[in-house]
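Morning!

This is the sequence you dropped in the shared folder:
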Amino acid sequence: IAVKAGVGVGDRVMVFGLDLRIAGLTSGTSSVVSSATFVRMEDFANVRGGGQVISFVLVKINAGESAEAVSTRIAQDISDVTVQTRSEFAAQERKLSQDMGADIISIMNTAGYLTGLGVVVLTVYMATIARRREYGVLKAIGVRNGRLYQVVVLQALISVGLGLAAAVAITSRAKNPSTTEGM
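The structure's back. Tokens below.
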């Protein structure tokens, strides 16, 4: 977020009419659909107009203490709160981001599918038009329409099959980093 906004530590930013100074930067706190920004509770209350609602609190534990023990102690001492370790919180946030991004990814998949389908149809059409004279010669020597249609469909299936094989090979190679090392 900071890179896109062209700001860094020490810079001042205006957030909902409140002038704030950037005290630090984090990484890995944004996704396609959302991002996280950490502010002091007092500043958040000023932006919201007051109130006692807290979404979550980050707790720093002392050296030598386990996150699970501190988590259990907080859950016992404070009622009506959900206490999570870092890994539990990260897993929940990851799931939330995935749930929020599922619709966008579905739309992108559909658009990609339709685009690919259009390219295949156009490729088959152009290949058929390019062989128009050959089909004319075959028709002139007595080949029936049904057989010509079979030839066109077979050529289309071969083109689509080769394209699918190439796409699967490229995709599987991209998913397996060990096959791309040294490239």
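Headline: Strands lie at 12-15, 18-21.

More detail when I'm at my desk.
O.
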